[in-house]
Amino acid sequence: MFGVVFPNRSFPIDISAFAQIDTFHWVLDMNTFVGEAYDQVREMCIFLLNGFTLPPDKALAVYVQSPGSPFVYCGAVTVSRPSAVLPLPWPEPGGDAAVAGQPLQLTSPDAAPLTAKIGVSVEEVGALPSLDAAAERRVERMAMRVGENLFNFMQSFCGVDGSKLVVPTDILDRWFKKFQERAKRDPDYLKTFAL
């Protein structure tokens, strides 16, 4: 039906590595895969296998769960989008998470999970948040980090005039030039903004 790959961490893994809860739900216990270092697994590629046909109104939704937390929606694949690389935004262990969609329920709400899990569920496409919700969060997070970098740079050149901050007129040009030079010197620099 589906397979997954954890980039730079695994070979393709098929559905047999997941525990099947019922006809439409599967769970991968991260303890058996990476132990307590589950939060170091930052992304996952999920793909439909060639021989499997998912109805056009259905999707395979992916969720993550830290110990003691509810499942959090990460994204989905459909027949028209048969594969996706999804970030895995692990919630704080034991904390309440901001859930984008309806939380996946695979256990009793009273039973706190003891290990981190990845859940896969067959669901109605219309009931899910945008399939690109994860991409939207990445872009928003990157924009915030770039803005923070600009603010910190500007702040180091600020003067105060009453209740206003005063910066040199060429501050944006200087910041952008420094930003570009750093990106050229260090190819991984821009990746730090996306994390």
TrEMBL record:
Location of the Hikeshi-like C-terminal domain: 139-191
Molecular function terms, GO-annotated: nuclear import signal receptor activity
Residue span, Hikeshi-like N-terminal domain: 18-126
Domain of life: Eukaryota
Listed Pfam families: Hikeshi-like_C, Hikeshi-like_N
InterPro entries assigned: Hikeshi-like_C (IPR048364), Hikeshi-like_N (IPR008493), OPI10 (IPR031318)
GO biological process: protein import into nucleus
Listed GO CC annotations: cytosol; nucleus
UniProt similarity note: Belongs to the OPI10 family.
PANTHER family to which the protein is assigned, alphabetical: HIKESHI FAMILY MEMBER, PROTEIN HIKESHI
Name of protein: Hikeshi-like domain-containing protein
